[in-house]
Amino acid sequence: GIKTLEYAQSCEDAMVVALGFFDCLHIGHADLINTAKQTAFELQAKCAVFTFENDPYRFIGKSESGQILTFEERISKLNDLRVDYCIKAQFDESFSHMQPEEFLVKLSENKNLKAIVAGEDYTFGSKGKGNVDLLKEWCQKNGVILKVQPFSKDNEGKISSTRIKRLLNAGEIEKANALLGKPYIVTGEVKHGQQRGRNIGFATANIDYCKDKLKIKSGVYYTRILVDGVWLKAVSNVGEHPTFDDMTFNIESHILYYDNDLYGKKITIRFFNRIRDIQKFNTKEELAEMISRNIDFALKCKQ
Questions:
Q1: How confident is the model over 122-139, as pLDDT tens digits?
Q2: Among 101, 111, 121, 264, fewest CB within 10 Å belongs to which?
Q3: pTM of model > 0.70
């Protein structure tokens, strides 16, 4: 599996490093990482991906929306992409003031760096002053191969995290998934809930939304949940619970034909379709009837 290294930690393996934030590892990021993997193969080196453990945009006060994937979720996706190393850094006060050259020196001084792969719009160092031209200069001086990856585009333009965030905010999960290359996921530990679902005949597994994570549009979704190595069909309520006058924003999932206790277990939820908005029902019976309809929808889904 993938190994994680601190940004300045030494490593003797020859390596090719993909540079970026890779906050959601969308299909454009995957293309760039594949270039890095191919380069590593040619140079008989290991493939490493640089990313931040926290959200740099939130740190500098530019974004309140949060990350599409948490650091833990990114590690899991990088592992699926068969990356050898994740080089992680914490974006803090001292990192934000680092000059571009200093960033590259620190990245490379304890490592056997053979090549760097970066996107054509990659910026780094204090106030994003470092760009691809500076990177070219530094790589030439230091005998490091540089590969610059052009933007990945589709008929609507550049594939970007900003676009994916917009789609997730709008609940357009299928379009977001197409750009993510894999279904949008939320990972969390199952908490004790209010037992409301159980009381109306539909037990739920409840998880909190990680505070650093982008909240998708509230609603009821068709999902699959990884339980003991198997992806089971589920219906997930994302958001508040107006029928019970409960305005806590969390995810409550009813896993179809599953009745074991998941408390304290970590689960991963994959999102496939948004079924409907959250509604307030007058009676528990009305809610139970609607949940039955949502389950019918989930049963018909092919994914």
A1: 999 998 899 999 999 999
A2: 264
A3: yes
